[in-house]
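Dear H.,

Thanks for agreeing to be a second pair of eyes. The structure we're designing against is below in token form, covering all 190 positions.
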């Protein structure tokens, strides 16, 4: 009889936890602790983001392929969030920290009209650190291309909840996905 009541209690708890999710999720990963350098040469850590909803991606400034649409889409997302009055943070992690100094990232942000009050561009670590961080926390590939100065990396945008859990991945290359992110943010922040 004890086992039946434990199973019943577990099932009820799962149901109650599931009721709290107002959006369909496709990930459940904890963001590893980090403390990196922003485009303003300040420190941003996962502790600073506690209590905030945030969207993360992985880019680099001299990328010649996917970063252009990704950063364009992140800028579009920021504009839509402003229009909708959504209070959330955006975080772009550089996967080329040797080249992407704070100054380079600040110039890059300016090219996209980024409002740095809620969009941070991060560097200040070595390549192995960001590679491990991306793979471990976000399940997203980061790999050097030995034949060029390019870095292979994932193209996802990741929704992180106030407890630091990645709960959803979106296609960062697709403009229409920004509407989906806005709708999800409206549900979870209202």
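And this is the sequence the design step returned. I haven't edited it by hand at all.
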């Amino acid at each position: 009889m004890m086992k039946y009541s434990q199973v019943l209690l577990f099932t009820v708890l799962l149901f109650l936890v599931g009721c709290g999710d107002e959006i369909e999720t496709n990930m459940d990963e904890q963001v590893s602790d980090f403390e990196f350098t922003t485009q303003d040469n300040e420190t941003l850590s996962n502790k600073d983001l506690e209590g905030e909803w945030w969207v993360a991606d992985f880019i680099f400034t001299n990328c010649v392929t996917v970063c252009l649409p990704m950063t364009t889409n992140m800028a579009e997302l920021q504009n839509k969030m402003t229009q909708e009055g959504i209070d959330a943070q955006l975080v772009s992690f550089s996967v080329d920290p040797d080249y992407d100094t704070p100054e380079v990232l600040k110039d890059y942000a300016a090219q996209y009209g980024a409002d740095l009050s809620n969009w941070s561009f991060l560097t200040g670590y070595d390549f192995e650190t960001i590679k491990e961080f991306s793979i471990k926390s976000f399940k997203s590939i980061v790999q050097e291309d030995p034949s060029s100065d390019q870095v292979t990396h994932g193209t996802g945008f990741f929704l992180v909840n106030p407890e630091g859990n990645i709960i959803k991945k979106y296609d960062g290359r697709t403009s229409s996905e920004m509407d989906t992110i806005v709708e999800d943010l409206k549900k979870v922040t209202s």
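Two observations from my side: Residues 7-21 have pLDDT under 50 and may be disordered. The CA atoms of residues 84 and 186 lie 8 Å apart.

Warmly,
E.
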